[in-house]
């Protein structure tokens, strides 16, 4: 799993400052414009976004902008005209992938009555889409709970607030800080939390499995391999193994 989050926290400030300094009518720095793009400019933007998903998915968010430009077959200046820093581009890609995963989780909730089928459907769909490799770094950051540290509430909705010793859990950058006000991430965690709670209540999910575990499965079971057929086969096999590990066992 190649998730890197250097300078991530500065993305909002960069995006805000760039948007305020952009010339009138030139559009916003985060890729959304107030006026329509020319056909060629729109095409370049789509190429850059597609290339960014591929490059960050393969190499992690630490990959340089030059790699994105090379994959998009445009000059690096073209990339920077649309996204004044890598942080802005990273945030754009991560937000889109978070939204896609949230939609997939909602679809699983709405279309599968059986709790385990809903959870496994979400995992299979999300792994197949490759979105797990592009989740925001703060969603995937985990810590190990110590026996003497059981008062720190995990920020994931619907997950136990007092994890057992040694259990992986999501933790904020600053353990004393409040949960981040990221509505997209919050929605994802909430919907996945519902899938987890339903499967746990039905006795089909191990009681110690948390939302963070499910997200780690999504990220881990989507390896990046040069051959698409091998990648699909490896993902399917790994996910089968991980799903088996998530299921509860008769006492």
Average pLDDT taken over every residue: 74
General shape: elongated
Going across the biggest sheet, name each strand in turn: 1-2
| Regions with little confidence, pLDDT below 50 for 5+ residues | 1-29, 143-181
Largest β sheet strand count, sense and barrel closure: 2 strands, antiparallel
Textual characterization of the structure:
With 251 residues, the protein is mainly α. It has two domains: 8-91, Orthogonal Bundle (Tetracycline Repressor, domain 2); 95-246, Tetracycline Repressor, domain 2. The chain is built from ten helices and two strands; from the N terminus they run αααααααββααα. It has helices at 11-21, 39-59, 65-72, 76-82, 86-111, 115-129, 137-140, 183-201, 211-220, 228-246; strands at 142-144, 168-170. A two-stranded antiparallel sheet has the order 1-2. The longest helix is centred in the middle third of the chain and has 26 residues, at 86-111. Mean pLDDT is 74; it is low at 1-29 and 143-181. It comes from Streptomyces fimbriatus. Residues 9-22 have a biased composition (Low complexity). Residues 42-101 form the HTH tetR-type domain. Residues 64-83 bind DNA.
